[in-house]
Write a structure and sequence with these properties.
One of its GO terms (molecular function) is DNA binding. By secondary structure, the protein is an alpha+beta fold. It has nine helices and nine strands. It has helices at about 10-25, 30-40, 45-55, 70-80, 85-100, 140-150, 155-165, 175-190, 230-255; strands spanning about 30, 60, 65-70, 105-110, 115-120, 135, 190-195, 200-210, 215-225. The protein starts with 11 loop residues before the first helix and ends with a helix.
């Protein structure tokens, strides 16, 4: 089980280097001056960090702007494929998006957050922007709730204590007791339901995928506009399709 707590004695220079990288990423580029202002550090300190990151080829420079280098593509792809089951999930995510025409994604829990690992859009999918690698509050997504329902309760409480229960919409469930009651229902029926809790007007269904040891690998979810995701489609057809897909992935993982 991972921990979401901060280290007791973090290394400040390493922290600063990562803060610089995160700011460059968040702002799609940054200057020495903007980084010094944002981090409230001397320009000479920022300059030394930038020169080190340039030397290590983690950033590139264009005029006075600094950007992330393409080295992160290599890191990202390795993270997407580091577990045996991930590539098998990727294939099924594509198939499910083609079959349903909706948006399908695979999410994992990492450090108490939901992280998008794979995403595919079907022929009439809603074009929202959960980019690959994006981290969001895990309790606000159908896939995230499916994962939480299968984690140890102590760890789930640790996640909630560390991050809180932010509301992304007026429909986000932010009551801890209500969420634990919902987790029981998720375990009983095998999948989770999200009705506008992450994005208004968007409904979703999610179910977990387990590895060969029975541990939660992540969760697959299907999402679409509320005017389509309702009735028999939302209550029977898509849940059955989703559960069948997860079962296929698990069988492939076990027998590969």
């Amino acid at each position: 089980m991972q921990s979401v707590d901060s280290p007791a004695n973090p290394v400040s220079t390493v922290d600063t280097a990562f803060e610089i990288l995160e700011l460059i990423h968040a702002n799609e580029g940054a200057t020495l001056l903007s980084l010094a202002d944002d981090l409230d550090l001397a320009k000479s300190t920022i300059h030394r960090h930038l020169q080190t990151l340039l030397h290590r080829q983690y950033i590139v420079r264009d005029g006075d702007q600094y950007y992330l280098s393409l080295r992160f593509l290599e890191f990202g792809r390795q993270a997407q494929t580091r577990k045996k089951g991930y590539p098998m999930v990727e294939e099924k995510v594509k198939e499910l998006a083609e079959e349903t025409g909706e948006r399908v994604q695979f999410i994992v829990e990492e450090h108490g957050q939901a992280v998008y690992v794979y995403r595919e859009t079907g022929s009439h999918a809603v074009q929202t922007d959960p980019g690959i690698g994006k981290r969001i509050p895990i309790h606000t997504t159908s896939a995230g709730k499916a994962i939480l329902a299968h984690l140890e309760e102590d760890y789930v409480e640790q996640i909630f204590d560390h991050y809180g229960l932010a509301a992304l919409t007026d429909f986000t469930e932010t009551d801890e007791d209500a969420l634990f009651e919902e987790f029981e229902r998720i375990r009983d029926r095998g999948y989770s339901i999200n009705e506008q809790e992450n994005v208004e007007g968007l409904h979703a269904l999610g179910t977990t995928v387990h590895d060969e040891h029975g541990d939660v690998l992540g969760a697959i979810s299907i999402s679409g506009p509320s005017h389509r995701m309702k009735g028999k489609l939302f209550e029977e057809e898509l849940p059955n399709l989703l559960l069948g897909t997860a079962n296929e992935v698990e069988l492939n993982i076990v027998h590969s």
